Each structure stands twice: as structure tokens, then as C-alpha cells.
Amino acid sequence: MGAALLRVSKLQDKWRVKLAKALESKNSRKTSKGGRFKKWAEKYAMFLLPFITVLREGLEAVVFIGGVALGLPATAIPLAVVTGLAGGCLIGFLIYKGGNLASIQIFLIVSTCFLYLVAAGLFSKAVWLFEMDKWNKIIGGDASETGAGPGSYDLRKSVWHVNCCSPDLNGGGGWGIFNSLFGWQNSATIGSVVSYNLYWVVVIIGFLTMRYSEKKGHWPFLKRNAAASKAEDDSSSQEGTSIGAADIEKTASESRGVSAKVRSTDSQGG
Fold first, then answer.
1. pLDDT in tens, 31-54
2. Handedness of CA 52, 58, 59, 61 (dihedral sign)
3. Collapsing DSSP states into helix, strand and coil, what is residue 189?
4. Which of 106, 153, 198, 209 has its C-alpha lying 20 to 30 A from 236's C-alpha?
């Protein structure tokens, strides 16, 4: 997804052509229901994608608020809902205005980097949760109940630990937000650190591989596409054939000129 976002600026012309064809296309002949639905979806694709995305996020927000509100009084819900709606409207307004003022390429780069940071945190957090589950089984309880000090983490697998800034204590606060977005933990393990760095290594290798494929026309350690090679061979053979035909025609014209000179010389001598 991140790679596709970074390629949006290169695909703008292609999208314009597709959108123009979709808007100007007319059902001149009878098509099946599936074909009509496909054309309709292509025509309103730029509306359907944001609509479905916002709808999905809204349903998730309702589920999360409902889950959190089970243990809270009803008076705690309105303020959170109003604050969330105001924050969403403000962010949407800033994105709209910023999109008109800033370059779309800069926006896509920033959003893609943010997307990769979130994904890296999720991957590292998943490995950390597996390790903490194993530690909880060893101590026979929930390690977070012991606080943020000794006993709340496995010293054998610990890379570093701070006795504060825990996203699991007192509601997490700001550290809980960092935990949700970037996978922050106040106790880093070998698995979480290695998985975080391994994720970025894979991303870097992926981008380098795609760049190699765009430049060379094939993936590393693989042969070129047979169709592309055949097309190049055909083009080169056509060029060679055209050059050969031109040489033959030139030679023939030169021979005709020589024959005409010989005939003129013979007629003058006679």
C-alpha cells in the first residue's frame, strides 16, 4: 500500500484517462448486471473508496466507544464523542486546506512514512505480546499487576527497561496513545527489537527490488520476461530488415545508373 501511494503522482495521467473514459462511456449495447455494476463502480470509484473507508472507521469507533463505555457512566460518553468529532473535523479541514496549498507528493510521502511507522510498531508489538504471554505463564499471573518495576518483565530477554511511561498503568495516558500508534513499550525485549529492525530491513529490500525491476525490466536473479525479450528481438530484426532492404534498393539504383551511363557511352561511340 505504501509503495502504491508513492507511485500515485506517476499514475495521475493514467487515472485521468481512465476517469475520462468511465465518465464518457455509454451503454450502447446490452450488458449483464455484473458488467453494469463494474462500469458504475469505475465511474464513482473516487467516491466509493473514501465513503467505504469513513464508514468502516465510523463503525470501529462505535464498537470501541461501546466497549469502553460498558464500565463507565453514561455521562462520560458525550464529551468523548464531541471531542472525537471535533478532532476529526479539524484534521479533515487541515488535510483539505493543506492539499490545496502543499504538493500532493509531499503529502503522500509523509502519510506513507507514518503508515510504515504504524505497521512497524504493530509488528514489534505483536512479538512483544507473545513474549509477555510466555512470561505471564511462568509467573502464573498478569505481569502488569506488579507495576512497572522488577517482576513486570523477563530479565533474561530484556534489552532495556524504564520504571515509568508504561502504557498499561493508570489508563496509559499519552503513552497508551503511543502504544496504539507506534507500539511503544517501556520494556523492550530481544524479540521486539529484532522484529522492529527486521521489518525496516524488509521494507528497504522491497523498495530496492522494485527500483531494480523498474530500471532493468525484471526482478533480481530472474531472467527477463520472454515477451519483452521477443519484442526487443522483433524490433531489432525489423530494424535489420529495413536497413537491409534500404541497402539493396540503394545498390540496385546505383547499378541502374551505371547501366545507363554505359548505354549512353556506347551510343555516342556508335
1. 566 677 777 777 777 788 778 888
2. positive
3. strand
4. 209
